[in-house]
């Protein structure tokens, strides 16, 4: 997501792993072709907190989601996180 001219440092690998796991859940084949991939915010926190491989504490989960929102990987509508560039992820 970060552009070549983006002066900010890239996101840490563990946050990008969180993004990949959430995109896997958001990009469901049963959703319509024109629908935007999304995941409920509470479901996203539950998925990341329960992932034994990531082994994140609740504060880490919240931090990762905040960073992904700030960087534009997701955008939030009500209580849903929507994938900003689904063509790249799904």
Question: Can you give a write-up of this model?
Answer:
This protein is of the alpha+beta class. The protein has four helices and three strands, in the order H-E-H-H-E-E-H. Strands 1-3-2 form a three-stranded antiparallel beta sheet. Helix 1 crosses helix 3 and helix 2 packs across helix 3. 19% of the residues are buried.
Main sheet specs: 3 strands, antiparallel
End-to-end separation in angstroms reads 15 Å
Count of DSSP H/I helices: 4
Q: In percent, how helical is the residue content? A: 40-55%
- Trace the largest sheet across and list its strands: 1-3-2
Low-pLDDT residue spans = none
What is the radius of gyration computed over CA atoms, rounded to a whole number of angstroms?
A: 13 Å
Structural class computed from helices and strand pairing? alpha+beta
SSE pattern: HEHHEEH
Taken as a percent bin, the fraction of beta residues is 5-15%
Please give the number of β-strands: 3
Report mean pLDDT, rounded to a whole number. 85
List keywords for this structure.
3-stranded antiparallel β-sheet; alpha+beta; 90 residues
Provide a short characterization of the protein structure.
This protein is of the alpha+beta class and 90 residues long. 46% of the residues lie in helices and 12% in strands.
Topology overview:
Blueprint: H1 13-26, E1 38-40, H2 41-50, H3 58-70, E2 74-77, E3 80-83, H4 86-89
Antiparallel strand pairs: 1-3, 2-3
Helix pairs in contact: 1-3, 2-3
């Amino acid at each position: 997501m970060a552009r070549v001219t983006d002066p900010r440092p890239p996101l840490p690998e563990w946050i990008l792993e969180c993004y990949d796991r959430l995109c896997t859940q958001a990009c469901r084949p049963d959703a319509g072709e024109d629908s935007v991939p999304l995941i409920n915010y509470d479901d996203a926190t539950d998925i990341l907190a329960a992932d034994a491989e990531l082994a994140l504490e609740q504060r880490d989960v919240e931090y990762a989601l905040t960073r992904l929102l700030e960087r534009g990987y997701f955008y939030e509508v009500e209580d849903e996180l929507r994938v900003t560039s689904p063509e790249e992820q799904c």
